[in-house]
Write a structure and sequence with these properties.
Elements lengths: L2 H13 L3 E7 L2 H15 L4 E7 L16 E5 L6 H6 L7 E4 L12 E3 L11 H12 L7 H10 L12 H12 L3 E7 L9 H6 L13 H11 L19 H15 L12 E6 L12 H13 L3 H9 L5 H31 L2 E2 L4 E4 L9 H9 L8 E7 L2 E10 L2 H5 L4 H11 L3 E4 L3 E7 L6 H13 L1
Parallel strand pairs: 1-2, 1-3, 3-4, 4-5, 9-10
Antiparallel strand pairs: 6-7, 8-9, 10-11, 11-13, 12-13
Helix pairs in contact: 1-4, 2-4, 2-5, 2-10, 2-11, 4-5, 5-6, 5-10, 10-11, 10-12, 11-12, 12-13, 15-16
Bound molecules: manganese (II) ion.
Manganese (II) ion binds next to loops.
Length: about 475
């Protein structure tokens, strides 16, 4: 079996189905996965129903309908095949499209998963896109959504651009005309919406002395040193996307000079990344580029309205439904940001506890567990970046569990920090479960095993850095 064969078989399975149920995850990758498949399936006039779940577990399995439709599990399912078996789902009624580690079960469910072919930087939306493209060549317009899913799942993060099959998808988007790849751009978030000086001052990985967390410093760099106007003719602040390429180059060059003042050497290439812009979306909105679009979808998911995100993704732009979904998604994004900011301020005001290789704080049940990881990442940019941050919180719907979220940065990853490995080891040792990426990871452990957990993780980080 090859990945190409898995994709072709999956396309065949879908084409032969009378009706399909998509079961997907509520984050940016899951929402774009659903939107890609939804369009590929409805374009063939196959009946379709979609279900979103926070995670696939015994409690949420009940949302999977009991009918004779083909159940397509996407962005989840590979690691929960025992649940599908327990539910009595037959091999013939299941298709899994996933990028998580697959579980061995007696029933050989049909699966598309790039992981076993070494494609670690391909998200579920990416795999789903290949299936959609196999169903019909004209589905290459859906590549744009898969780019958002890949970027949302941090597939571009380590290499500062999409690679391998995920890059092929971005190239399809260029062919389709709704994706523009911008090379050699600044590795920072908010190219379409953030006022220029804030955009630069939020840039924190790598930390740029005199610019990161210093909006005035960033403003001086733009106006005084680069001699670039901060505002447009109408008086509004410019955004990064407004800049001409020679203006961008001047700023990047100056940022590189600032890096010389770093406490320790930072490779200047770390400032550079590839961006994915969508020319068919309005300027100055989060819809305009992959990473801001992904944040908006994550906001929809985290405030439990994944279907609003999906409606935006499917982009029937003339419909009232679409317009309403866009404004609802924008509201969720605003709310999302304000709660995250509140949480970051709480972390900074309360103060973290520092261990030799870790800083941590328990926020109890003050904030929704779904945003704790992001708040941790933002707080880290204002704290000692050398110490990975760990935030513990309680879950509103499960009094037995503690959720752990960890964040670090590229510099620490390049020194050997691997949060996924650390949390996997530490949580398994206390009967919990963890996963994620080197730079960002999460875990669930029992409340009864909470004491001493930070010290346990600290020891592992110490070992990773030795
Ligand atoms: Mn995913």
């Amino acid at each position: 079996m090859s990945f190409t064969q898995e994709i072709a078989d999956a396309a065949e399975t879908i084409k032969n189905a009378d009706s399909v149920t998509i079961i997907s995850h509520i984050d940016a990758d899951g929402i774009t996965s659903e939107a890609v498949l939804r369009q590929a399936i409805t374009r063939r006039n196959i009946n379709l129903e979609s279900v979103f779940v926070r995670q696939l577990e015994p409690m949420t399995m009940k949302h999977v309908p009991d009918n004779d439709s083909l159940k397509v599990f996407i962005d989840l399912g590979a690691g929960q095949q025992n649940l599908l078996e327990e539910r009595g789902l037959k091999e013939s009624e299941v298709l899994i499209i996933d990028h998580h580690v697959s579980q061995d079960t007696d029933t050989p469910y049909q699966q598309v998963n790039g992981l076993k072919y070494g494609y670690e930087k391909l998200s579920a939306a990416g795999a789903g896109y290949f299936v959609a493209r196999d169903i019909e060549d004209s589905n290459i317009d859906l590549a744009k959504l898969a780019v958002i899913g890949n970027v949302g799942d941090m597939m571009a993060r380590e290499s500062r651009g999409l690679i391998g099959p995920a890059k092929e998808i971005a190239d399809d988007g260029v062919k389709a005309g709704n994706v523009k790849i911008i090379d050699g751009d600044l590795n920072s978030y908010g190219i379409s919406t953030r006022p220029l000086h804030f955009f630069l001052s939020y840039s924190n990985d790598p930390f740029v002395p005199g610019i990161t967390n210093d909006a005035e410093g960033a403003q001086r760099l733009v106006e005084e040193y680069a001699k670039i106007p901060l505002r447009k003719d109408n008086g509004k602040f410019r955004v990064w996307e407004d800049l001409k390429s020679d203006e961008k180059d001047r700023i990047i060059k100056l940022m590189k000079y600032h890096l010389i003042d770093s406490d320790e050497p930072v490779a200047p290439e770390r400032l550079i990344a590839q961006h994915y812009v969508f020319p068919d979306e309005p300027r100055y909105t989060p819809l305009r580029n992959a990473s801001e679009y992904a944040t908006m979808l994550n906001a929809c998911g985290r405030w439990v309205k994944p279907k609003v995100g999906s409606t935006v993704c499917c982009g029937n732009k003339k419909s009232r439904e679409y317009t309403e979904a866009c404004s609802e998604a924008a509201d969720m994004l605003r709310h999302h940001r304000s709660v995250i900011r509140e949480m970051m301020e709480y972390i900074l005001d309360t103060g973290v506890k520092e261990l030799s290789h870790l800083q941590y704080l328990h926020v109890g049940d003050r904030f929704p567990d779904t945003i704790v990881g992001i708040g941790a990442g933002m707080a880290l940019s204002k704290l000692n970046w050398r110490l990975p941050i760990m935030i513990l919180c309680y879950l509103p719907d499960d009094p037995e569990l503690v959720k752990i979220s960890m964040r670090t940065n590229e510099t620490m990853v390049s020194k050997g920090v691997d949060l996924q490995a650390a949390l996997l080891e530490a949580s398994e040792a206390v009967g919990g479960a963890g996963g994620g990426h080197k730079i960002a990871a999460g875990a669930y452990i029992s409340r009864s095993r909470e004491a001493g957990f930070a010290e346990r993780v600290n020891e592992i980080l110490k070992r990773q850095l030795s």
